[in-house]
Amino acid sequence: MKIVFGCDSNAEEFKQKLMEYTKSLGHEVTDFGDSDPVYANVAFKVAKAVAAKEYDRGILLCGTGIGVSIAANKVKGAYAACIHDVYQAQRAELSNHANIITMGAQVIGIELGKQLIKEYLSCTYDPEGRSKDKVQRIIDFENE
């Protein structure tokens, strides 16, 4: 898969470690950086690229994961889930078809971060699964 990363300055070191780990899983990784002091700008950039299908999935990082999640979700076609445990990592894709995950560098450790990425990227949404009507309703509302 083609994965794009972005972060704010609070998460640069965390991002570098997670990008290396993601590469070790066999994925192609692109870094959209961390130089903008306004985290929303990198979140918008990642979300637009994922929504345009230039990348299969995105991973955004900031201090808590919350700010970049809120920002990314403002982009039409971007569905960002802020995660902090394995079940959420799995369900982000399996139940919610999230094309972006967000995490907080100041609230989870690197080993958990790696585990969350591995779980998230190992899951594939089933368009005929039990969540299809729920996910479709979100898409329909976005398009109203």
Task: Offer a quick outline of the entry.
By secondary structure, the protein is an alpha/beta fold. The protein has six helices and five strands, in the order βαβαβαβαβαα.
Task: Explain what the structure shows.
The protein has a single domain, classed as Ribose 5-phosphate Isomerase B, Chain: A (3-Layer(aba) Sandwich), CATH 3.40.1400.10. Helices cover 47% and strands 17% of the residues. The longest helix is centred in the first third of the chain and has 13 residues, at 12-24. Strands 2-1-3-5-4 form a 5-stranded parallel beta sheet, sandwiched between helices. With 144 residues, it is α/β, with parallel strands linked by helices. Strand 4 (80-82), helix 4 (86-94) and strand 5 form a beta-alpha-beta unit. The termini are far apart. The model has no long low-confidence stretch (mean pLDDT 96). It has helices at residues 12-24, 39-51, 66-72, 86-94, 110-122, 132-143, and strands at residues 2-7, 28-31, 57-62, 80-82, 100-104.
Essential attributes:
single chain; 144 residues; alpha/beta; Ribose 5-phosphate Isomerase B, Chain: A; 6 helices
Secondary-structure map:
Elements: E1 2-7, H1 12-24, E2 28-31, H2 39-51, E3 57-62, H3 66-72, E4 80-82, H4 86-94, E5 100-104, H5 110-122, H6 132-143
Parallel strand pairs: 1-2, 1-3, 3-5, 4-5
Helix pairs in contact: 1-5, 2-3, 4-5
